[in-house]
Amino acid sequence: MAGRPWWAANELLAFLLEVAALACLFWWGFTLADNLAVRVLIGSAVVVVAVVLWSLFAAPRARFRPPLAGVLAVKALVLGGGALALYGVGHPAVALTLGVVVVINTALAESFRHRPGPTA
After folding, report:
1. Which of 13, 54, 66, 78 is most buried, judged by most C-beta within 10 A?
2. Position 119 in a domain
């Protein structure tokens, strides 16, 4: 990691975006009901579904490894869902910013993964 600071910085940003998406999904789910217990239940359920999808198909050590298109679809669903959730709670400008950063981060991550390493 020491020899690839841009890769490391992008991976850190990817992790932070994943956490932010989960927080946004919880927040959105939390706004869907009036009863506090139901709000917490819905918010938590949305996050659990996102985490299960991510861990099964998109995580670095995913149980199932679909082709790249499948991994990107799950990432789009979870990370894009986070941006849409932010829009849904009334923050369209921040949601757009989050969506743009997610797309750039994912594109960079994929280009870093497919770039040949240094020759020794």
Report:
1. 78
2. no
Res 18 pLDDT > 60: yes
In the chain, the amino acid numbered 103 is: V
Q: What is the DSSP code (8-state) at residue 9?
A: H
CA distance 48 to 23: 11
Question: What is the pTM for the complete model shown?
Answer: 0.86
Range of the domain at 108: 5-113
Residue 118: left (phi > 0), alpha (psi -120 to 50), or beta?
beta
Establish if 120 belongs to a structural domain.
no
**118 inside domain:** no
Find out whether 78 and 54 touch, Cβ atoms under 8 Å.
yes
Quick: pLDDT tens for 76-94: 999 999 999 999 999 999 9
CB 75 within 8 A of CB 106: yes
More confident residue, 13 or 120: 13
